[in-house]
Amino acid sequence: MPKISRFNHIQPWRDGLYIAYNAFSGAVALMTEDNYATYQRVVEKMAGNGTASYTPEETELAKQMEFGRFAIRDDFDEREALHFHHNISRYDRTTLGLTIAPTMACNMACHYCYEASKTGRMSPDMIEHIIRFVEKRAPALSALSVSWYGGEPLLAMDIIDDLTQSFLDMATEYKFTYSATMVSNGYLLTPEIVDRLVKAKVEMIQVTIDGPAKSHNAKRPLKNGQPSFETIIKNLTHASQKIGMGVRVNVDKSFDNAMIAELLDELIAAGLKDRVGVYFGQIEPSVQACANISETCYETSEFSKTEIEYYRLLLDKGFRIDRIPAPVATYCMAQIVNSFMIDPDGYLYKCFNHVGDKSLAMGNIKNEVDFQDKNFLRLFRADPFDDPTCRECDLLPICMGGCPSRRVDREKEGEQVCETWRHNLQPMLEIIARSRQRQMQQKASAAAKE
Amino acid sequence: MIFLIDPNDLTTLQACTRKCVALIVPCLVKPLYGIII
Q1: pLDDT tens digits for range A130-144
Q2: Chains A–B, number of C-beta pairs less than 8 Å apart
Q3: B3 → chain A, closest CA residue
Q4: Residues A265-279: pLDDT tens digits?
Q5: How many Å apart are CA A335 and CA A385, to the nearest integer?
Q6: Do A235 and A365 belong together in one domain?
Q7: What is the ipTM of this complex?
Q8: Among the four A165, A420, A425, B4, which has the fewest Cβ within 10 Å?
Q9: To the nearest whole angstrom, how far is the Cα of B18 from the nearest Cα of chain A?
């Protein structure tokens, strides 16, 4: 006899429909009022002593519930399964994740960036150390995943080319898969560079646009004070035809709906509506160097409310909604032994926010990795299964305890550590449901035309 | 029940979404690394 999942979220929606979401499987389904009434009877029967008989309608719905994992085998312990997958991910040595900053230099001067004054470029000697580091692990690998980061990584395109060639050679020799992504400000993303990135197997690039042209240009000027918006948009138009592009909009208290609407109109005018995924990022004063911006930053609970309004705008303007509450095994690289951030001097970190601050490094790539280093253990120790609130949380599969740095470095606790889903799951599911419904309708009408 | 997100499609969908949301910029932490259950 199946039992009901502890991760079900059922909510009434519009037109007599209900949204059913399961955080363990990530399934989202719609139920009619009849379905919902049947669902309630099935839940009651499953909670009973196992002797209840099912009508054909109840049997059919129970099957669908099992498919979406809204109902599970009665001897299946979801929390134990989750813990098991979490530990596998933590200690997995078959996947190597590297976030590499080939340079800390940047051509922009964003007011909120703690990296602004940093410089430095990876030396040929350090490139050799990285190759040896991967080579040593290559025989055990099934996948190597690289994120190019910085500084602005496109200022060191030659290093990216060189390292990629070595990684691809090793992938062929040791038969592991290779994939790459990049965080770039987009200013140097010319057609020639895009072609090189395609060759370098970069599948996805995140570019940040902080509001409409006038706001972006004020917040993200070039180092020489010149605006960057128009060039970035022009570059996105070309790049999005060859590589997946994500547009991140960093949100602080200076934003309002009108600004977001203006930006979306500008993206539509540039023909980017169906070609880029847009999402909103919360700016946080993550390290001491960011203290100057803390007053303009949202707390997560406040950001959650703003985020809903912006996603509604995105939906109303016809963009797809990419943000979905999908299950993950770990929150980030801090919880994974085989995932490292490497700065141009070869220092290893467990958090993007620490890059360049050598006092927070867990060692250097020139030496053996020390898993007893205090900077490794400090974040790695953050385990949601040690936190009684997280263990009981019905959203644990999609957050896995939240940001370890927020928890440990910034000493946040309780709901302050929670992801925005904790605060806005219900309205976000409505937005996601509308977006998915629209996508399905578009697909159906396109199929009908063929 | 009509599935808007089918758990069997999630690997593809999540892989795609992860690429969009997993990356970060300075002062922000939103990475979603990890294997898919």
Answers
A1: 999 999 999 999 989
A2: 175
A3: A29
A4: 999 999 999 999 898
A5: 12
A6: yes
A7: 0.85
A8: A165
A9: 9
